[in-house]
Amino acid sequence: MTTTAIIVAAGRGTRAGGDIPKQWQDLGGRSIAALAMQPFADHPRVAHLVLVLHPDDLATDLWRDTPTASVVAGGATRKASVMAGLAAVPDTTTRVLIHDAARPLVSAQIIDRVLTALDSHQGAAPAVAVTDTLWHGADGVVTGVQPRDGLYRAQTPQGFHLAPLLAAHLAQEDDATDDVGVARAAGLDVAIVAGDETNIKITTPGDFARAARLMGQDMDIRCGNGYDVHRFGPGDHVWLCGVKVPHGRSLQGHSDADVGMHAVTDAIYGALGMGDIGQHFPPSDPQWKGAESQIFLRHAVGLARDHGYRVSNVDCTLVCEYPKIGPHQGAMKAALAAIMGLAADRISVKATTSERLGFTGREEGIASLATVTLVKP
């Protein structure tokens, strides 16, 4: 079974307030939609993501921090947006998970439960049983009591086998508030799996504060530092933070001697408590001679991801008299961003001299210091 997650982010969310739609507003340093997508991007049983955007958002940078996904324009109704997402899934897709971009705190456990239920049902969705007494009311007065037995509060992701869900959508002309309603109207069986009180939907301004509190309860934040030095030797360029910089000498090392990228890599390993580059890529191993340092950095980022962390931000300082870093600063940030899957505004690359003191002041080599923050939601 090949599963694609469809993240519906085409609404305007006016009740939440703010100058931009709620799914693009910030929550703990990332957009709500990016947070909603990340658990699916990290899940080993989800092969592909489709992001459904409002047509007005396509040409903007609102979604720049979202994980890699196929991007498609949504429609005027939720049903039309879901249909656009279904049309964009890869041909290999047999099952879909449809998730609301306004639910930023979905967990891997909920995703697992939905996928497991699909092994024996045509559809499955998380829900939380209603425990409060329910009233009917009018004009501010209670007019009746609604029995709560068998009532649930629906959540997402809602999962389905692709073919029957697509047929159900094609057969129903009216709009629906969720895909379970569409599936039920077509006679599909939908299993209820345990949802979670933390899997809230951002709807009103107060929900932002509530979500921030919930994130803070379980968030694991780690910081790591990295330091590296390489001496100068013969050559006509240096590699710094993934950029080839012309220079009268080259940095010497077993790999390409990218001192900046090595410091960032070691900072990630340090935050994870997993040693340094030398432990993962021993210089005594000839296969790493002359290797591109992006191999090491990609490994460190992947290791963090495998342990449930994402890199929140990077701060790298290069210590040298020459070459001058300023003209290459933007390219270095872009190179690190591409390798690490981060927005460039989450990466700092800066330089300083040592006032002609020490080995860097004597232009014998370059040093680099880096700090990295890892976050586990």
Characterization of the model:
There is one protein chain. By secondary structure, this protein is of the alpha/beta class. The chain has eleven helices and 19 strands. Strands 1, 4, 5, 6, 7, 10, 11 and 12 form an eight-stranded mixed beta sheet that branches. Helix 4 packs across helix 5 and helix 7 (259-272) packs parallel to helix 9 (294-306). The longest helix is centred in the middle third of the chain and has 14 residues, at 205-218. The chain is elongated and about 85 Å long.
How would you summarize what this structure contains?
The chain has 377 residues and is α/β, with parallel strands linked by helices. It has helices at 32-42, 78-87, 108-117, 162-171, 179-185, 205-218, 259-272, 277-280, 294-306, 329-340, 358-361; strands at 3-9, 26-27, 30-31, 48-53, 70-73, 95-100, 123-129, 134-138, 141-146, 152-154, 158-161, 190-194, 220-233, 237-240, 243-246, 250-251, 310-319, 347-352, 365-376.
Blueprint (SSEs and pairs):
Blueprint: E1 3-9, E2 26-27, E3 30-31, H1 32-42, E4 48-53, E5 70-73, H2 78-87, E6 95-100, H3 108-117, E7 123-129, E8 134-138, E9 141-146, E10 152-154, E11 158-161, H4 162-171, H5 179-185, E12 190-194, H6 205-218, E13 220-233, E14 237-240, E15 243-246, E16 250-251, H7 259-272, H8 277-280, H9 294-306, E17 310-319, H10 329-340, E18 347-352, H11 358-361, E19 365-376
Parallel strand pairs: 1-4, 1-6, 4-5, 7-12, 17-18
Antiparallel strand pairs: 2-3, 6-11, 7-10, 7-11, 8-9, 13-16, 13-19, 14-15, 17-19
Helix pairs in contact: 4-5, 7-9
